[in-house]
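[09:14] KT: can someone run the structure on this one? pasting the chain below
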Amino acid sequence: MTAPPRGGAPAEALAAVEASIEDRWRSFLAEYEVTAGTKEETDLAESVVADTSVFEWRVVDAAFDRLTCTDCGNGLGSGPDGCEKCDQANGFRFAAIETDRPATPPGTEHGLRVATAVARARHRYGARARCGFELGLPLLLDGELPGTAQAQAYRAAINKLTEEECERVTSFDEISRLSSRRVR
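[09:31] RB: done, structure tokens below
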């Protein structure tokens, strides 16, 4: 896991999602009667990434965590931008099943999924994308999905920040305070 340097609620939310990914993987292993740390676990992870569209996204992310890219040596799908195998694997991860949790707006799980992917492999994304998705993690984890107008307002405010400010902020309220001081 790559923790966001901003800390605060985004880091706490990412830790909670990371725990849910690991919990789901442990359950998945139990369903298939596979022991963690064995060749069978690696084989199961490989079968998951062979067709990500038939598995829930937490299972897919956990499977990627257990595999290494043969080209760059990083976790499969998490290597540097431009590693062909990691780029392909990262794209396939988004074919996984995303089922909205009860009592959440449609699309919330997709938002959580994307925000988690960005936060877990932040080096693959620009400062502004990291900022928006990482700050959105706590809201999405709580079952909130910003509407289009709110998301556009967040993006406009983020676009007024420097890249350094994008890495430091820990909330959308902080972004609003900083971005309201300048005009672009």
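[09:33] KT: thanks! The chain has nine helices and no strands.
[09:34] RB: yep, looked fine to me
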